[in-house]
Amino acid sequence: MNKIKLVYVVILFSTFGFSQANGIENDLFENETLLYNVHVKMKYFFKTDTTNRQYTVVLEKNKQDSLYGYNFKIFNRHTLYINWGNTLYSISKKDKVYTTSKKVDLNIKNLLLPNRYIKAKDLSDSLRIIEKNRREVVIRRDKKDFKEFNNIYFNYYIDLKNRLSYKITSHVNFQGNSQYKEFLFENIRQKSDVNFKSEIENLKKYRYDSFEKKQKPVSKNSIKVKDFEGYLLSQDETLSLSSYYGKIIILDFWYMSCYPCIKAIPFINKLRNDFTKEDVVVLGVNLIDENKKQIRKFTEDFNIQYEVLLAKNNAYNIKAYPAIVIIDKNKEILYSGSGVRKEEESKIIDIINMALRN
Predict the structure, then answer these.
(1) 226 vs 156: CA distance, rounded Å
(2) Quick one: which of 150, 158, 143 has its CA closest to 67?
(3) 10-64: per-residue pLDDT in tens?
(4) Hey, how many other C-beta atoms are within 10 angstroms of the C-beta on 126?
(5) Distance from the CA of 296 to the CA of which of 8, 19, 31, 180 falls in 20 to 30 A?
(6) From CA 28, how far away is CA 26, in angstroms rounded?
């Protein structure tokens, strides 16, 4: 099946009438490093306004001559990401703190300049040309419906001059509402005099915050918990996080249209059920959605078995979802991280058990 798709893609692209671009394409693919800007627009479910973010990216080609970079630097006013030597460094300019990871999450990958060809493995369901003119071709990739999510598709806007996807948009419907994302890659140019190694050496002026530190027993220097108020969906009342002080608190930050959040629900249910007899409370904190009726229906449809708290104050500065925060009985944070990957689940359980023993 994959071979059939690959042949189909090759045939499809050959019908575009691509010709060797004069100058630009040769420069792009022979040059080792590119510099460009990314403008991201996002419209969430049940929201009318659009959020806008801008980034600058320095992208070094890898040995396979792909525009998916091996080493890269992504930055704006608040955040800096550097990928070097199979390690991702995430730096907070404001807090002068950085963390490291061996994986690059999807939110960061989306900011990397797409390959000049759409890879066959990305064409999971169907592919069709929806628009073509002398300047560009627009390819739509349709995805299968998933439970109440429907009309899911991605549009790739490909410049016929240099064969680059200069814009990617995504769309999905949920309960009669739509979510839209747009990634616009602008001002692509060559970049020289980039030394990723020296960038890493400059991190000496920042404080390293490791995951291992968060797993150690509570110390006097641990980060103190931040209180906030929210609407408890099951009780139809407003309460503060401080009402749970004295217990081990597990906060799961999520929202309805977040696919990774939905995938994490069974694990969060497991935490609630496995520790229900212990002095542990599990709260699903929603900072994005506002319609209580829709959220109640969502919790029923996806079998959410833990309490849901609707809050507006992003006290923990959550930027990526889902995010887990674990607070011990002494009101100190033992763990804070985004994403609930399989390899992280056992670590989270170990941290809870450690907190119960202390």
Answers:
(1) 42
(2) 158
(3) 334 444 443 333 333 444 444 567 888 999 998 876 667 788 889 998 887 654 4
(4) 11
(5) 180
(6) 5
The stretch 274-296 carries a mean pLDDT of 88
> Given CA atoms 108, 114, 120, 126 in this order, what sign does their dihedral have?
positive
Compute the radius of gyration of the chain from its Cα atoms.
23
Inter-residue contact 241 to 311 (CB < 8 Å): no
- pTM, to two decimals: 0.60
> In whole angstroms, what is the distance from residue 40 CA to residue 184 CA?
6
Q: What's the CA gap between 143 and 154, in Å, rounded?
A: 8
Residue 145's Cβ-side half-sphere holds a number of Cα atoms within 13 Å equal to: 8
Residue 104 near residue 113, CB atoms below 8 Å = no
Q: Which domains does the chain have, with CATH numbers?
A: 27-208 (2.50.20.10), 229-357 (3.40.30.10)
Task: Tell me what pLDDT residue 165 has.
Answer: 80
Contacts of 235 (CB under 8 A, 6+ apart): none
- Given a contact cutoff of 8 angstroms between Cβ atoms, the answer to whether 249 and 281 are in contact is yes
